[in-house]
Amino acid sequence: MTVMGRPTSFAPGMCEQAHNYCLLGATNDELAEFFAVCPRTIDNWIAKHDDFAAAVKSGRVAADARVARGLYARAVGYERKVEREVIIGGELKSLTSTVHYPPNVQACVFWLRNRRPKTWRDPHTDPSTPVDDIALLEAASERARHHDDAPRDGD
């Protein structure tokens, strides 16, 4: 005796939609809501349809890579060109400047704790007692800032 379930509502055109939605960070629950199915159905589609699974995976990999690049930029600091229009002497002129965004300590800690957990965890402390890495990095940042502000020969 063969038991048959409900026919699937899956269609190949859903792969591109799933990919695009995953580029925006969609979870399986969000995909289920988008396609008006239950989350288990999304799990089944991923397991049964290689093209759907590949679309979901590639969208998520791209989204995660974009976030990782942004987190890295926040951790090390970055510069960005900003263009704006100003009125000078009664004339509208375009002004371009570079804005420096300094490193963000919390982004550094997050990055290092996840990328180098053995290095950024103190092995001599009780794991239930967190090390205040943020305070350590802020102190190091402050020392570096004072070092950068120190007068140099020829200044």
Explain what this protein looks like in three dimensions:
The chain is α+β, with helices and mostly antiparallel strands. Among the domains are: 60 residues; 46 residues, no CATH class. A two-stranded antiparallel ribbon has the order 1-2. Helix 2 crosses helix 3, helix 3 packs across helix 4 and helix 4 crosses helix 5. The longest helix has 27 residues. The model has no long low-confidence stretch (mean pLDDT 84).
- What's the average pLDDT? 84
**Fraction of helical residues:** 40-55%
Q: Report, as a whole number of angstroms, the end-to-end distance.
A: 90 Å
Main sheet overview: 2 strands, antiparallel
Q: Measured on Cα atoms, how large is the radius of gyration?
A: 25 Å
Which structural class best describes the helix and strand composition? alpha+beta
Strand order of the largest sheet: 1-2
Strand segment count: 2
Silhouette? flat
Oligomer category: single chain
What fraction of the residues are assigned to beta strands by DSSP?
A: 5-15%
List the helices and strands and how they pair.
Elements: H1 14-23, H2 28-35, H3 39-48, H4 50-76, E1 78-88, E2 91-101, H5 105-115, H6 133-149
Antiparallel strand pairs: 1-2
Which keywords apply here?
single chain; 155 residues; alpha+beta; two-stranded antiparallel sheet; 14% strand
In short:
By secondary structure, the chain is of the alpha+beta class. Helix content is 54%, strand content 14%.
